[in-house]
């Protein structure tokens, strides 16, 4: 939610594959991947063959390879392929937003140093939720592929340990795509359009007693026409999250474990801002051991404190035309959580100050599987601040079994529940 660190993103479905990486240089070529089975309303732009390669020699011993990598991007921009087939270290922030027609063939590994003092000072900062990044990609027509063995390692452990002592620490995001038109594979997708993410594995975990915090798999922000598919996410925060101004998004074929769900929001956090999430299709995903399966969270109409470094509410806008279809659940606390009172536990206060964000035309279809024992026999919660701001909420063919085997119950409050087929609603 606030800022995020991904410990490691293994590109193309392989667990941390150090043996494969150490086995020697591998040459990989751009895979041919299309959105499937759901597609966007228009085809993604095609990307011409590259006609030049720029290899980067690693300095080894943990020495900083950032300047050599930057040089390769300069040399191979406008039609080439940057080949990263060794183990590299990055200890300097890299601004790669000048790209135009370049491939990145990452069959090696990239590890960011754990020099917290340096990164706090020098990472790229964004206003949105105090986020920051080690490097950013932007421009036009960029493909990053890992051939099943490429590895990005954010070195999250040092950050989780420091964050436990310092809750306002700004922790960088492993990969930010900022203003990219046409491309593939990233973590924060911001100011971008026509993006395809496919066959990526993200593993986040802490080896100390300090939890890995704020570790979203992918976030979209101010972005249009994005497909995220056929990937594996093991983390402890949102698996995918649609932040302000995410439109025409497809998420399909994911397997998420231990997360906070596939989430719209949070939205409406900042007073005076206007947030839009529209035309989102979440199709045929599996969610296991999560706090939530399908989640929509917007702040109420009043700005109050929530957690250290996190407060909000009062922002306006809308969430419209969001579908979750064929959703397989395994041991999730809430199968569906729709909340128009996010960050505010006082429901009286929430109803006194209804959200300035409308939620409408929402579809939950064909859900299967099990909930966890946490709220048994309750399996979901849908709480709105007012029926004027929350309408056309549909559920159909939802078949969920809580561990007790009892008839599942749903908490439903503050909106017209006529379109929730077969729901047994209680008010708390
Ligand atoms: C390589 O591709 C770039 C961009 O598509 C083009 O401008 C350039 O002329 C090509 N060079 C060669 C040698 O084909
Ligand atoms: C996206 O663009 C906005 C301006 O339109 C800028 O303020 C912001 O820093 C950019 N990047 C991110 C990640 O928000
Ligand atoms: C749903 O996803 C699973 C696993 O990714 C896949 O095997 C199956 O073919 C998909 N089904 C449909 C109808 O797309
Ligand atoms: C899923 O996450 C749980 C923790 O929530 C973990 O114990 C388990 O090992 C993970 N499963 C897989 C297949 O990674
Ligand atoms: C989202 O789009 C609306 C309408 O174009 C705009 O007013 C608002 O500033 C945008 N919000 C963000 C966070 O970029
Ligand atoms: C709703 O969104 C889907 C894509 O998710 C799109 O195909 C459809 O046209 C949208 N419907 C409306 C009424 O905008
Ligand atoms: C950023 O963090 C500071 C310090 O924790 C906090 O006061 C501020 O509200 C945060 N800003 C945003 C935009 O979340
Ligand atoms: C909730 O907010 C209302 C309105 O401000 C207040 O009267 C009430 O005491 C609050 N309840 C709790 C439990 O804080
Ligand atoms: C938010 O809603 C409140 C009423 O709940 C209203 O007084 C206020 O003007 C709204 N603010 C915006 C920015 O729409
Ligand atoms: C209900 O959902 C299940 C699981 O996705 C599907 O197999 C079944 O065909 C659906 N039934 C109806 C009546 O749509
Ligand atoms: C709804 O819940 C009540 C209370 O637990 C239970 O008695 C009733 O059988 C349930 N009805 C259905 C249709 O599941």
Automatic annotation (TrEMBL):
Active site location: 260
The superkingdom listed in its UniProt entry is Eukaryota
The enzyme's E.C. designation: 3.2.1.67
Which residues does the annotated region (Disordered) include? 33-60
- Please give the biological process terms from Gene Ontology that the record holds: cell wall organization; pectin catabolic process
Gene3D superfamilies to which the protein is assigned, alphabetical: Single-stranded right-handed beta-helix, Pectin lyase-like
Q: Which GO terms describe its cellular component?
A: extracellular region
UniProt entry keywords in alphabetical sequence:
Cell wall biogenesis/degradation, Disulfide bond, Glycoprotein, Glycosidase, Hydrolase, Repeat, Secreted, Signal
**Substrates-to-products reaction catalysed:** [(1->4)-alpha-D-galacturonosyl](n) + H2O = alpha-D-galacturonate + [(1->4)-alpha-D-galacturonosyl](n-1)
Q: Where is the composition biased (Polar residues)?
A: 47-60
What family does this belong to? Belongs to the glycosyl hydrolase 28 family.
Query: Would you tell me the protein name for this molecule?
Result: galacturonan 1,4-alpha-galacturonidase
């Amino acid at each position: 939610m606030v800022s995020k660190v991904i410990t490691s993103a293994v590109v193309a479905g392989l667990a941390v594959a150090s043996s494969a990486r150490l086995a020697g240089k591998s040459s990989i070529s751009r895979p041919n991947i299309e959105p499937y089975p759901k597609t966007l309303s228009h085809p993604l732009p095609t990307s011409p063959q590259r006609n030049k390669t720029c290899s980067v020699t690693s300095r080894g011993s943990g020495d900083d390879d950032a300047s050599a990598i930057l040089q390769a991007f300069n040399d191979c921009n406008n039609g080439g392929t940057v080949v990263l087939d060794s183990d590299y270290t990055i200890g300097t922030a890299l601004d790669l937003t000048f790209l135009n027609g370049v491939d990145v063939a990452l069959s090696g590994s990239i590890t960011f140093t754990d020099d917290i003092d340096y990164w706090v000072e020098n990472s790229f900062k964004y206003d949105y939720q105090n986020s920051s990044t080690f490097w950013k990609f932007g421009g036009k027509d960029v493909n990053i592929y890992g051939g099943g063995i490429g590895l990005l390692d954010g070195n999250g452990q040092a950050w989780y340990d420091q964050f436990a002592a310092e809750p306002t620490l700004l922790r960088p995001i492993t990969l930010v795509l900022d203003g990219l038109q046409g491309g593939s594979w990233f973590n924060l997708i911001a100011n971008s359009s026509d993006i395809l993410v496919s066959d990526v594995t993200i593993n986040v975990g802490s080896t100390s007693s300090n939890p890995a915090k704020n570790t979203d798999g992918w976030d979209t922000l101010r972005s249009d026409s994005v497909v995220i598919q056929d990937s594996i996410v093991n983390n402890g925060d949102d698996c995918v999250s649609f932040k302000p101004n995410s439109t025409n998004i497809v998420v399909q074929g994911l397997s998420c474990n231990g997360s906070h769900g596939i989430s719209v929001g949070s939205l409406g956090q900042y007073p005076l801002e206007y947030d839009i999430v529209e035309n989102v299709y979440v199709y045929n995903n599996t969610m296991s051991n999560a706090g939530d399966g399908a989640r929509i969270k917007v702040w109420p109409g009043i700005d109050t404190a929530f957690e250290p470094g996190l407060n909000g509410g009062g922002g306006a806008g809308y969430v419209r035309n969001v579908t979750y279809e064929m959703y397989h659940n395994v041991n999730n606390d809430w199968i569906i959580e729709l909340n128009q009172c996010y960050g505010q536990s006082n429901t009286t206060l929430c109803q006194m100050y209804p959200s300035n964000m409308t939620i409408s035309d929402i579809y939950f279809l064909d859900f299967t599987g099990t909930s966890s024992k946490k709220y048994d026999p309750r399996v979901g919660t849908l709480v709105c601040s007012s029926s004027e701001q929350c309408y056309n909420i549909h559920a159909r063919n939802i078949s969920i079994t809580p561990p007790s085997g009892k008839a599942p119950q749903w908490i439903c409050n503050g909106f017209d529940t006529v379109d929730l087929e077969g729901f047994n609603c209680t008010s708390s």
